[in-house]
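Lab meeting, action items carried over

1. Structure of the two-component assembly. Owner: GW. Status: complete.
Input record:
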Amino acid sequence: DVRLVESGGGLVQPGGSLRLSCAASGFDFNGYTLAWVRQAPGKGLEWVSSISSSSSFIYYADSLKGRFTVSRDNAESSVYLQLSSLRVEDTAVYFCARENWDLTFDSWGQGTLVTVSS
Amino acid sequence: QSALAQPASVSGSPGQSVTISCTGSSRDVGGYDYVSWYQKHPGKAPQLIIFGVTNRPSGVSPRFSGSKSGNTASLTISGLQPEDEADYYCDAYTSSSTWVFGGGTKLTVL
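Predicted assembly:
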């Protein structure tokens, strides 16, 4: 079975940084684009970033304005999201998701909570 | 990129049908047949229920169906059941090679 497990969330002060990880198993990790999607408390889902299988194509939501960086390690079957210059409004559950060839997110992790607060 | 427009809430009685709309633009919903729908229960991961506008993943009930007309996609849930009570989100691939989600719709089964 496809499994995606996020980690690395926690409490961080405004202006701080955090690195999220997503460990994948149960499928050929090298063959898929992975994405990060977040959900702020009481709000809807928001696509954050996607990274292609070989890291050749990387996209970010315009709203992030260069504060987040996505990367992956195919040898470790993991994808990462580096969060920098964090703001209170970045408080959210961050989900890792697999994008399949039908351009849909067919598998999701359970999410990791990031809380930005002083 | 603004979120796709969804009604904040819809409701229906068991056995009835409800339809949730998802309105975007020619740069996303109207431009490609890459619209998906997700069901999300509080505290749980989203679950894909419709992809490619009309397709159901294996294991998803045929009570869920999708369609699209112009810049608006729709999700119809027929034969409502209590377990259908959840939040529903659409998403669409965009002309910028990015993704945009809808604001979400809370379905209440009366």
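2. GW to write a short summary for the group page. Key points so far: Residues 64 and 77 of chain B are 5 Å apart (CA to CA). Chain B has a mean pLDDT of 96.
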